[in-house]
Structures are given as structure tokens and as C-alpha cells.
Amino acid sequence: MTSQANVIPVQSGLPEFEDRANQETKYTTCYMCACRCGIKVTVEDNKVRFIQGNPNHPINKGVLCAKGNSGIMKQYSPAKLSKPLLRKPGTERGAGEFEEISWDQALDMLEKRLRHIRATDPKKLAYFTGRDQMQALTGMWASQFGTINWAAHGGFCSVNMAAGGLYTMGHAFWEFGDPDWDNTKYFMMWGVAEDHSSNPIKLGLKKLKERGAKFVAVNPVRTGYQAIADEWVAIRPGTDAVLALSMVHVLLKNQLVDEEFLIRYTNSPQLVVNTPGQKGDGLFYRGESGEPQVWDLVKEQFVDANLPDINPALFGEFTMPDGTPVRTAMNIMLEKYLDDEYAPENAAKECGVKAEDIERMALEMAHVAFKESITIDVEWTDWAGRKQDKFIGRPVSMHAMRGISAHSNGFQTCRAIHLLQVLLGTIDCPGGHLAKPPFPKHVPPGIKPAKDMAPNTPLKSPPLGFPTCPEDLVINEDGSPKRIDKAYSWDAPISCHGLMHMVISNAVKGDPYEIDTLMLFMANMAWNSSMNTAQTIDMLCEKKDDGEYKIPFIVCSDAFNSEMVAFSDLVLPDTTYLERYDTISMLDRPISEPHAACDSVRIPVIQPDRDVMSWQEVMVEMAGRLGFPAFSTPEGERKYEGYKDFIVNFEKEPGIGFLAGYRGKDGDKSLRGEPNPRQWEAYAENEGFFEMHLDLNQRYMRHANLDYLTLAKEAAWVGSTNQIVIELYSEKLQTFRLAGQGLYDGPMPTEEHHKERLVKYFDPLPFYYMPLEEQRIDRDEYPFHAVNQRPMFMYHSWDSQNAWLRQIMSQNYLFMNRVAGEKMGIEDLSWVWVESHNGKIRVQVKLMEGTNEQTVWTWNAIAKRGGAWGLSDDANEATDGFLMNHLISELLPQKGDKVDRVTNSDPVTGQAAWYDLRVKITPAAPGETGAWPTFSALKPQPNAKPSPDMLSYTSHENVNLKRPMSDILTRGEK
Amino acid sequence: MKLGLVVDLDTCVGCHGCATACKQWNTSGTIGPLSDENPYGKDPNGAWLNRIRTYEVDDHPNSKTVNMPMSCMHCDNAACVTVCPTGASYKREEDGIVLVDQDKCMGCNLCSWACPYGARELDPHQGTMKKCTLCVDRIYDERLPEDERKPACVMTCPTKSRVFGDFDDPDSEVSKLVRDRAGKQLMPELGYEPVNTYLPPRNKPVVETYEPKSIKATVKGWVNKVIAR
Amino acid sequence: MHPAFSVLVFTVMSGAGYGLITLMILGHLLGVPQLQDSNVLLSGGILGFVLISGGLLSSTLHLANPKNAWRSFSRFKTSWLSREAVFAVLFYPFVLAYLANVWFNGAEVNGAAVVAGYGAAALAMVTLFCTSMIYASLKTIRQWNTSLTPVNYIALGLMSGSLLLAAVQATVAGDLSSVLHNLAIGLVILGAAVKLIYLFWIGKPAGSTINTATGFTQASVRLLDQGHTANGFLNNEFGYTVEANRLMRLRVLMVGIAFVLPFLLLLTSSAGLLALAAILTIIGLLVERWLFFAEARHVVRLFHGDQRV
Ligand SMILES: Nc1nc2c(c(=O)[nH]1)N[C@H]1C(S)=C(S)[C@@H](COP(=O)(O)OP(=O)(O)OC[C@H]3O[C@@H](n4cnc5c(=O)[nH]c(N)nc54)[C@H](O)[C@@H]3O)O[C@H]1N2
Ligand SMILES: Nc1nc2c(c(=O)[nH]1)N[C@H]1C(S)=C(S)[C@@H](COP(=O)(O)OP(=O)(O)OC[C@H]3O[C@@H](n4cnc5c(=O)[nH]c(N)nc54)[C@H](O)[C@@H]3O)O[C@H]1N2
Ligand code: SF4
Ligand code: SF4
Ligand code: SF4
Ligand code: SF4
Ligand code: SF4
Ligand SMILES: [Mo]
Predict the structure, then answer these.
(1) Which range of residues forms the domain containing residue B152?
(2) Ligand 4 neighbour B68 (Cβ under 6 A)
(3) A186 and A395 in contact (C-beta within 8 Å)?
(4) Separation of alpha carbons A54 and A23, rounded Å
(5) What's the pLDDT tens digit per position in A416-428?
(6) Reported ipTM
(7) Which candidate from B65, B110, B114 shows the least CB-CB separation from C224?
(8) CB of A809 less than 8 A from some CB of C
């Protein structure tokens, strides 16, 4: 790394500012958010002196964000939990009355409860995890336990981005891919405020700006990244598919698509049966052994689409030998997107972007893709073993996140954006959108969700997977859901990440059944991660007639006194990120960069001063106690001493473990290799991470790159070296649509609304539909869209305990376009009521220019409950901050039909539709100020020290730089 | 030497990374601790040496959002120094860094009144004046690796919007940036001659649009090309 | 600017004290008949001494770290505050020598009285000037950065001093001196004139705007976020805002109490009413000083969203 400044000559006469002999520097991984930057921590006397970015780290290359720089105050937080807590017998849940118990007591109690559930009815344990980074471990734990009721936060977070990508091209936005920051010349960012890749995006944007590449931001709000965009497209929320597909329309109309790319790498030449109303309609015409067919222009016959060296027709209608009409998928696309619906003039009306701008942007991208293409002269081998002499790059790239995914049409919108990328030929090519190992995978990854459970028996497959047809749904014979969150049911058939936002609501209703224990890890479900927060709080305390809670037992693992703690029966205090061993595993979503396979670890840098235990250890301990097969020897003994031992020695398949680096007896093997007893030490010596650069010939076109696919198979990232064919046309979706039409040989829904949803939303090609909430409310009554943004300096709820970060923001406002506000007579800083179909809140307004006129928005998760997080009862977060969550229902707007009970989620993936929210705004009466609703303050933890009124943190006595008295007395004016 | 910072308004996304990096380095640094009042209560408020503000420039629909980080400008003509009665405030002759000797400050606030840029904040606990030291305790510290001998805020900035260097040296990166990008001083009319310089947002890049040859408004317009798979 | 009560008390009290002592000594030494009375001189001297010392003590109350107050003598070379401190201290031996001389030798003018007296008077005026220059030298506050500031400080110090002097003289001696009476009337008129000129002058728009502050000089600029939600040091120190109407009312009140009422009272010749006039003036000047701060708009406000200062 070259230093930015000329090094300043060292000066004599300065004091030795700190006693470095007393300091140690250690490397670990930040966890102030899920970006997972490498940090170098200077510690003295078990206190943190300084946390800086590790310049060698693949993710952050030495930089840190505001949160990462405030780790000291996270470690210092007065809200840290210090001992296991048990709700005092006889007190109410939510009252926050706890007694401290020992870890032995806590673990015994948990073991007893879990042992009973596992031996009787494993699904009675619902285990859900929030913003965690260890789904590989928790998911495996749940499988071994034998409950299908496990999921992480993906369902309320961004499963739409994951599914949209994985069902299209085998990688995705979110944490699965990145723009090629070094080469892209035109970058379009859709609905991103911060995302997980927070430092890499910032580093990348700087590169673009330095190079003079164009940065277009599609977002109803202009702050943060959008502030530095060259063009801000102030779209109306929920309509991005219209914009994307209108640009597709422009490209198609002008015949500006990469036909070579489409033919070689996508399924667009494949032939689709065209027999509307009949079985088999919309499925591919397949050969005898099931291989999809194309029409070979040279041979003039149908051939296996997956063969090399054929000349498929991209367009055309044909007839199968049995007379069935077929046409290329591309033909269907032309028909669909050349339609007037997507003409810029019409699109403009829907999405609010001017027709000429839509047209211009599409043609700009076409220009960059086709007239400014780049080549990298590296020889590589394609999937069929043919040598290629260069990579061709079409330097247009995109990134999208929750502005797209948090809508109930997000899956199809995400696919629409991918379609645009694919038509321009910008997938995994130089300058385009690159995958990050272990992605890409075959479309979709070959894991099916587990369906069946038996006492004391591990699941046969993981609880979460990727259905490809109705047979894969996790439903009973009668079509009712098997999972507590109703994932993989007709409500949300390809909900690959579960529906965490439905668990409490469903469990309390006993719909589809009652559970015994809800175990939450790192999820603040009593506050910011629930829709309908106030009602969720009530639900958590709801009792049956016999006085028992509807959710009988709630266990929560948290490191801090969050709102969730008060609603738990057993609280297991976790370590902080600076205090524990952890892995960011290749089996999960590792820290890989496009051109390097990487994973990393956390290694304690601070010794805990409390009686805490990391959740990793708890997991391994429970697995051992309960005798999970994977955690036991054949003799039934515990196999692993603890988490570190487990990580080193566990093998998923021979040579494949949680950590991909420094494997093999001597630590010289990468990706696959026998366990290395010194693996942790090797990571520590290598600054906490492992990075394996891909060879030059493995870096692009990986969906069709044999050199890469061979490596990927060896590393167990993919199951075969077959080409990963990009699925613009999704036959998998069509199977569900056929089920909805009653034309499927297999499970089919019986309820009318399910049929309608399947027919409407499971379009095999991306399309636009109005978000579901908007469909079910009066749009004139609720004229505004209401969305959130993540502040760059706060991570969900957990940074209000941070004395530095909360100074930046301890109150949020409702931001509104100035013109829109003034039209309604709303003044800056006045208080207003915001009302949705689900409830109302009182909030303070700020007017601004950079917001779409039909949109209001606020910063996410700033409001807190007094008493939680070590905050005083009158903390600004509790009195003036507000959560938008109160307005958002976990169910669709009520209309008195069957759909009333259906989740407020994407009908395809079950993604929580946070940003579908529509509201009306009315000025509050004079004198009506302060946030509403507010909640009573939570009790402090037992034996908690009160939070201080003044803080002067320093890790050592500060050494002042003294000005000599002689200088003071003699120096005059400059 | 005339040391200072260049701040690039074209790329700053307002992430506050530099602000908290500054806080954490300096609270245990030579000017520290930097105290915080009501850290967990109502209206938390502490001493910071670097703050980020956001403005909207121009009116709808031409408006633009601009993030503007501000710390001490290490002015050439630093009235904050001349007004100080105790001599606690001074400007180093060797490099122009403006500092406050914590042992000598009496907390009269006068220097903060003299500063046009809001770069000085009184520590609520210590009662002494705090300000950016340009990380004097980093940039000269031989025990730090060479690459790390720069201000904490500069090291951490994820968009590399902060550049540190010697404005007296015409070949330094800061001098070049100021020349190439027409760097600006804030409130030049007051005559403080601030050293820190702001790079205004760049002009937007112009991208050509593809001039299509023919328009295929219907499916029929498309003709198959023989392309081998 | 945030008006710190200790600073208001300091500037008003010490201003009146310096004015009183200066006028008294000059009157004594130049032979004003009614001031050749040691009782008058000692009373006035002690009152002035108390006002000055009380004011100076009060001024240390606004120091956040008063243990270093003694260091404020060290930067005489550049700092008006340091100069003020030095001159304020230098004043003491002179005024004490002068008062000791009166105590021991009565009102007779001798060499010691001349040296100590003129020295004390000069240092009083210089100190008052230095105090005023602390404010006047700040380019960051246009309302202060004017030669009207020292003129104001000195004129109002002398004005309030003259009222006190006349009142002390009348009370101690039992009959009113017309010279002192007329001097007070004259100084009240002068003070009022100076103040009105100042108030008129600060009404004019300033040079710095939010545009020059942010460097965006071609378009409108609005603050969206100041980077912290609760007020910080800068907000508290510089963000002090009073409603325009209230300011207007306070200005009228100030002119009434500090100038008009005392003037009217001065038109009578009663010693009691003179004392009342002096007290009213002091109260009025407290309001005047409060306004001096409250109406001063520091340029940092531009960064927090003010369009101009
Ligand atoms: N600092 C910080 N970083 C975080 C987090 C955090 O809390 N703090 N959370 C992490 C998590 S869990 C997640 S899921 C990611 C999410 O990262 P982001 O995807 O960046 O999440 P949001 O902040 O929800 O941003 C959504 C953006 O989309 C815009 N938007 C809303 N509706 C629409 C729309 O219909 N169309 C378009 N084009 N834009 C729209 C909003 O204005 C906003 O800018 O961030 C992660 N990173
Ligand atoms: N209105 C609205 N609501 C939203 C969103 C939105 O955009 N708008 N975004 C949604 C999204 S995308 C997400 S991902 C969710 C996030 O919601 P959650 O997953 O609930 O996220 P957090 O609030 O970050 O906190 C989870 C809990 O983890 C705890 N925790 C922190 N560190 C540790 C640790 O080291 N160990 C343990 N055991 N616990 C720890 C915290 O104290 C906190 O109680 O919020 C969702 N909620
Ligand atoms: S982006 Fe910030 S908080 Fe997240 S891991 Fe990186 S440094 Fe830590
Ligand atoms: S760290 Fe960089 S991008 Fe972030 S606010 Fe500071 S200058 Fe701006
Ligand atoms: S910015 Fe302010 S504190 Fe810094 S040198 Fe200039 S006047 Fe002094
Ligand atoms: S506050 Fe301290 S540094 Fe500032 S002028 Fe007063 S004594 Fe000097
Ligand atoms: S140079 Fe150092 S002290 Fe100054 S703003 Fe940057 S980090 Fe803070
Ligand atoms: Mo998320």
C-alpha cells in the first residue's frame, strides 16, 4: 500500500506520547456491522487504545467506518450483560424482573428443556437468529437437533436479492457479488443506502469518481452515496421494475443487446412450449433425457441446448415433432418487453422518471457496453474445454439492495435488473457485476429444504434450501404449512431464508401450531426487527386461558440489555466481538472478494470482565450435551472440547471445514485439506484472515470458466463443473404458475387466493406489479410512500448504547420533500401524525430538497425504549425518536377476505415488505409534541451500575505536548 | 512546512468515519481525554475535533447534497492563537500546527470565539479547550510504521476524501490537488488564511448515447445471426 | 452569543468602577471644588474599588479551568485579554497608593497623589479599553468588530461612573455639585448617542454568508444536518437566539432604564433620586450588555444553517 502523504520527517523534541512497551497490537474482525472489516487493535491493560483498519485486509484495505471506529464505546457500554438471567418466578414477562443465575444452572435448564423437546416433538423448538454471521453453525445445529423451524434474518432482510440472483445467475447482489470497481465505466446503484459492503462500496465509489466513470443513483432519497452520484434518479418507491424494464424496452427496440452473450451463456435461445391453458405450457421443450432444446440454425434441427459448438437460434417459433408449438425464450421476452406498457412514455407515468431520461440512460449504457468495451488478454478455458484468448468486458455495472428487496415485488424487480445486466452482457465480465467465491453456484444451488422430522433424529437436509418445483414445498398433504413461519408454503413458495417476521405472530396464534420454546440469537424482535412492534410486544406477553404464555419459553442470546431481553425467560449473555473466537466461514457468506477466496476469524483481544460465554461455545456445548451425532464419537462421547476444537476438526466432507485456509497437517493446503491442529494460530499469524487469489484465467466468466469451475468443485463450492447457465426465463417459476392454474402434475393449491397469487406473481420472466399493500389500500387516502434508510454510523438497534455514535444521532426525523410539505402547510421541525392502515405515530418533520415528492422517510431503528441499552428514561431516543415499524403490519391490509391472514411479504420469496408502506400525514395540534407512542422504561439489569453522567475515556494518562514558557513569553504576532 | 488537509467534497459521503476515528485516537492522545456529557442520557454532548455537516445546495430540482467535514484549518493567520491570554494556544513554527497546551489553558473560551470555523470545543469535564492536533502524536511518531504516520481521520476515510500533506511543498499531493481541482478556502473574506482546503464537486462526466441504426419495434424485426455456442 | 451572567456583571461593574474612579481622580486633581473632600474621595474610591474587584472576581467565574487564571498575564504581546489582566493588576498599586494618600493626607493634592492618581486614571481607561478590544478584535463577530465597541465601553463606563460619582458626592457631602451634575447629564446624552449609533450600525447586513462559509457562492445553501442531534458546545456558545420582537422590546427597555429614566431623574437635583438614577443605569447597562451579547452573531452560525450573520 502506498502512503497517501509524503512521510513527514520525524521531529526531535516531542515527548514519547505513549508507553508502547505496555501496548500490544492484535488482529481480528470487526463486528460493528456485517461488513466484517479487518481490524488491528492496540490494547493496553486490557483496555482498547485504538482500533484501526488493517491495510492488508481484503475487505477494507485499512479503512474503517464510523461504527468500526467506535468499538471502544461498544466495549465500554454500560448495557453489556454480565450474567445469565432468569425471569423471576411469579413476575410477568416484560416486567424485566430477573435473577442472576450461574452458567451451570442456565445450561442445565436449557439442556433439560431441549432434550425433552428433541425427544418428543422437535418442531416445538423454533430457533431464529437475527443479524448474525454464523448461520453455517446455527443451521447445522438446528439440523442436528432435528427441527425445521430454523432460519436467520434473511427473510426480513433481503432474501429477494439472494433469490432474485440465485434463481437467475447463481450469484447476486447483497453479499454475493460486487461491481468491478476497477474497470466499470458506468455504475447504476438501485436503492442502496449503506448495505453490508459498506467500506468496499465507499472505496469503490472513490475509484469510479477518480476515473471519471459515471455513477447513477436510483433512489427516492438523495443522501449519502446518492449525494455524490453524477445523476440522481428520484424514483417513486416500488416502481423500479418499471424503470428497469422500460430500459430493457429501449434496448430491445434499438436492438442493442449482446446476442453472443445471450446465446452462449443464457437460456434465452431455449425453446418454450407455447400451449396456453394446457399442461406443460411454458415449460421447456426437453429431449429424451430431459435436456432442454434449441433450434440449430446450421443443422436446422432441434439439439440439446447444453452442447458446445451448436448454433442456436435466438429468435423464432417452431413446432416440436409432435406438433406442439414452441418459441425461444427470447421471443417471449421481445413480445413482453416491446409492449407499450414498458414504453418510456408509459413507464414515466408510473415511476416518475422522465421518458427522455429513461431512454437516454438506456442508450448511455448501451454505448458504454458496446462502444467502450474492454478486453483483458488472458487465455482461459471455457466450460466445454475450448481455449479463449481474452475476456471481453462490457463495463456497465449495477448494485441493488433493500430499496429493491424490501418491497413485495422485489424478487421480480431484482430479476428485472439482472435481465438488464444480462442483455448488456455485463455478468461476471471485466467492468461488470462480478461474483464472489463461493459464488456463482448452479441455478439455483442444489439444496432442498428439509421437510420431515422425527424425535432425536437429525434432519436429512438443512432446514433452508432452494425449491425448484411445488414438490419441494414444505407442506402437509392438505397443503397446510409445516414450518412455524409458513416458509415454503403456498403463501411464499420459495422463501429460501424463512420468514422470521412471522414467527411470533404465528406461534401466538397457534397457526399452524403451537410451539414450546422460542430461541433467539442476536435478534431484537421486541423492537426494531418486528413489524408491528407495539402489537408484537403484546403478543410476546399473551397468555392462554390456563395462564401459561402462548409462547411458553423464550430464550435469548444477547450481549447487551436490548429491548428483547426484557421479554425473555432465560437470557444467555454473550461476549462482545472483541472477546470471542468466531469464524466468517466459507460455508456461509465469507468475506471473499471477486478475485480472491477469503475467510476470516475473530480472536479475542480483550478478556471479558463478566460472567459471559460466547454463543458459539453455547452451541457446541449444547450439541455435545444433547449428543448430536455430528458432535459425538461413534461411542456416543462428546467429540469436541469446545468451539475452537470444533472449528479445527469438524469436516463437512473430507477436507472441507468451516475455515478454508491453512488446512492440511502443516497448514499448507487451501480450500480443501485435512484438519490442521494449528489452524487458529495460522490465522492469528496471518492477521486473522485467509486470502487466496484466483489465477488470472479464473477471474471472469466463472459461470462458464472451466479453470474456475474445476477449482470451485475441488473446494466444494459447486457440485459439478457443468456450465452455470443464466436463467433469464425461469422454468422453475413456471412450475408454480402451472400449479396455480391447476395444470401441474404434483402438489397444487386449493385456496383461490393462492391460485391467483401463483398465476399472477410466478411469471417466469420479470415484470412489474404494484406492491401488495398499495393494491389493498386506498392510494388517495394514503398518498405517501414511507421508507427507511440505514444511517452509515448506526447498526440497527445496537449502537444507541454507544456514547459516541448516539451523539451523532439520538433522534430521528421524518424527512419530507420541501415542496410537498409546504403545499400541506407543514413547517420544518413541526410535529405531525403519520398514519397507515395499521396504526399511527407522531413524529417531527424536517423538510429537504432531495426527496421524491411522494415519499417520506426516516433513519432506521434510532428510537429506543428508555432503560434499554443503558439509556436513561429521558434519553432522546425514548422521548423524541420513533420507529416506523408501528405502522407496518406483518399481515396485508385487512379487507375481509382470505388474504387478510396472508403475510405482508413478497408472494414469491416471503421477503418482508417493509417499504411497501403507504401513509397519510396530518399536522399535529398545537402543543402536541414528542414522539408517540412511547413505552414505559425498562428496568435495569440486576446489580447494574448506573450509567455515568460524564465520560472521559482514555486508555492511559494522556501525555500533553507542552509549550515552553520561553516561547509563550517571547513570541509576537506572526 | 505548512501541514494541513485537503477535503474532497466530490467524494465525501458523510459517513462520520473520520469524526469517530478522530475521537477514538485523540481521547487517548495528547489532547485527550475528550469528555462526553450525558453519554447515556438526554442530549448527549461531548468534545469532538471533527464534525460532519450536510447541506443542500441550490433549489429543487437542481439541488445537490453536499457533506462537509470540518476540523481545525490550522490557519496561517490564526486569531485563535493571538487572542489566547495564557499562551496555551499556539501555532508551531516548524509545521504550522495549531495546538492547545492542556496544562496551561484556563478555559476562557476566547479562542473559540476567535475561530470562524467552529474548530474548538471546550471539554465539559476537563474545562480546557480541545481542538484538532493534526494528529501531531501520529505523524511524527517513529514507532508507528511509516504508512501510519498520518492523521487518524485520513487513514480511516473510506472514500479517501481526506489528504494530508505539506502545502509549502509544491510537489506534494495536497498542493497538486489544490491546483488541479481549484481548491477553495472557506470564508476567505475573514483573512484567516486557512490551510485546509476543500475540493469542490467535479463536473459530471458526459456519456455518449448509442446512436442506433434501426429500430425494431416488433418481434418480427429481429433476425437470427449464426453464433456458435 | 450566549450572554454569560458573570461576564455581564464583570463588564458593567468594572466599567462603572473604572469610570467612577477615573472621573473622581481627575476631578480631584484638576481641582473640582466639591471633590476636594476626603470623605467623598474615600467613599467614591472604595465604591469604585469594590465594583472593579467584584467585577474582576466575577469574570473568573466563567473560566472553566480557573486554576490557570494566573497564566493569563503571559500573552501581553498579542492578547487583549492578557493586556486587560496585566493593566487591571497594574491599576491596583496606583489606586491603592492614591487612596492611601487621601486616607493619610486628606484631599490635598501632593506629588504622590498626582503620580498615583493620574497613573490609576490612565490605567483604568487603558484597562477598560483592553476589555473592549477583547470583543472589538474578533473578526468572527461583526457586531463587535468595530471601533464603536471601545467607544461604547468607555463612554458607558464613564457615564455610569459619572452618575455614581455624582450620587456619592451628593450623599456624602449633602449637597449636589453642579459640575458633576452637568457632567453626568452630558455623559448620559453622550452614552445614549453612542449606543444609538451602535444599534443603528449593527442593523446593516454583514459580509459573510452561508455561501462564503461553505464555498458555494453561486446558489442557495441550506443546512440539512449539523452532524449531531443534541446541541453541542458550538450551539450553546454561538447559537443563542432571541426572537426579534423580544430584542426590540429589550432595546426599548434598555434605552429607557439606562438612559432616559436616569436623564429624567437627573433633571431633578435630589441626592436620593441621583442614587436611584445611578442604580437604574447599572441595571440598564446589564440589559445593554446582555443585548451586546445576544445580538452578536458569530459566523459559526452560518455552518449551522443561518443564512447570514
Ligand atoms: N450502517 C449500517 N449498515 C448496515 C446496516 C445498518 O443498520 N447500519 N444494516 C445492514 C443490513 S441488515 C442490511 S439488510 C443492509 C441494507 O442496506 P441497504 O440496502 O443500503 O438498506 P436501506 O438503508 O434499507 O436502504 C434502502 C435504500 O433504498 C431506498 N429506497 C427505498 N425504497 C426504494 C425503491 O422503491 N426504489 C429504490 N430505487 N430505492 C428505494 C432508500 O431511500 C434507501 O436509500 O445494510 C447493512 N448495513
Ligand atoms: N422499519 C424497519 N425495520 C427493519 C428494517 C427496516 O429497514 N425498516 N430492516 C430489517 C432488517 S434488513 C434487518 S436485518 C433487521 C435487523 O434486526 P435484528 O437482527 O434484530 O438486528 P439488531 O437490531 O442489529 O440487533 C439484534 C440484537 O443483537 C444483539 N447483539 C449485538 N451484538 C451481539 C453479540 O455479539 N452477540 C449476541 N448474542 N447478540 C448481539 C443486539 O443487542 C440486539 O439485541 O431489522 C429489520 N427491521
Ligand atoms: S463497515 Fe464498519 S462496522 Fe462494518 S465491519 Fe467494517 S468497520 Fe466494522
Ligand atoms: S470519513 Fe471520509 S467520507 Fe466519511 S465523512 Fe469523513 S471525509 Fe467524508
Ligand atoms: S480553524 Fe480556528 S482553531 Fe483552527 S487555526 Fe483557524 S482559527 Fe484557529
Ligand atoms: S480557552 Fe484556553 S486556549 Fe482558549 S483562549 Fe482561553 S486559555 Fe487560551
Ligand atoms: S487530523 Fe487528527 S485531530 Fe485533526 S481531525 Fe483528523 S484525526 Fe482529528
Ligand atoms: Mo438486513
Answers:
(1) 3-228
(2) no
(3) yes
(4) 17
(5) 999 999 999 999 9
(6) 0.97
(7) B65
(8) yes
